[in-house]
């Protein structure tokens, strides 16, 4: 089993050295992150996503799409339909302290927008709460 928890407790892939934990989204990205390059081997990357261990993959509600497991609950709409942020299978916690909860105008976000966008003179929430309350 090569499952490990990488930075911020995000899903990772354990290298042969049993010490290096590579983020799931860094597996099969054409950059060797493990010393021996095992994160880019053909048996792992030959038929994406089928060749990947299940813990590295999150299946979007549209069966045609998948993302790497560490992209689930990252605040961004990686699936295109927000199923990686709001779906029952995503099971994401509420917006963290770095985020403002609202119905975003931009489809880049799902149920939260980064607090750094608050009071920047640009509407990011349907209610304008990011400009007046946040």
Considering the chains and any ligands shown, give keywords for the structure:
6% helix, mainly beta, 16% strand, 7 strands, 3-stranded antiparallel β-sheet, 134 residues, two-stranded antiparallel ribbon, 2 helices
Question: In percent, how much strand structure appears in the residues?
Answer: 15-25%
Number of helices: 2
Shape: elongated
* Overall pLDDT level: 95
* Helicity, as a percent range: under 10%
Could you walk me through the main structural features you see in this protein, from its secondary elements to its overall organization?
With 134 residues, the protein is mainly beta. The chain has a domain of 72 residues. It has 2 helices and 7 strands; from the N terminus they run E-E-E-H-E-E-E-E-H. A 3-stranded antiparallel β-sheet has the order 1-2-3, with no helix packed on it. The longest helix has 4 residues. It is elongated. The mean pLDDT is 95.
Short synopsis of the structure:
The chain has 134 residues and is mostly beta strands. It has helices spanning 42-45, 129-132; strands at residues 3-5, 11-14, 21-23, 57-59, 66-68, 99-101, 112-114.
Any chance you could write out the topology, listing elements then pairs?
Layout: E1 3-5, E2 11-14, E3 21-23, H1 42-45, E4 57-59, E5 66-68, E6 99-101, E7 112-114, H2 129-132
Antiparallel strand pairs: 1-2, 2-3, 4-5, 6-7
Domain LDLRAD1-like C-terminal: 93-132
Organism: Corythaeola cristata
Pfam families: LDLRAD1_C
């Amino acid at each position: 089993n090569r499952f490990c928890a990488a930075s911020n407790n995000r899903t990772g892939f354990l290298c042969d050295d049993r010490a290096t934990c590579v983020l799931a989204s860094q597996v099969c990205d054409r950059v060797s992150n493990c010393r021996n390059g095992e994160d880019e081997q053909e048996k792992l990357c030959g038929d994406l996503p089928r060749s990947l261990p299940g813990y590295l993959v999150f299946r979007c509600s549209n069966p045609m799409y998948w993302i790497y497991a560490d992209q689930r609950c990252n605040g961004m709409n990686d699936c295109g339909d927000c199923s990686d942020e709001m779906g029952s299978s995503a099971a994401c916690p509420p917006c963290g302290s770095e985020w403002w909860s609202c119905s975003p105008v931009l489809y880049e976000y799902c149920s939260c927008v980064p607090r750094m966008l608050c009071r920047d003179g640009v509407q990011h929430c349907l209610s304008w709460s990011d400009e007046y309350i946040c």
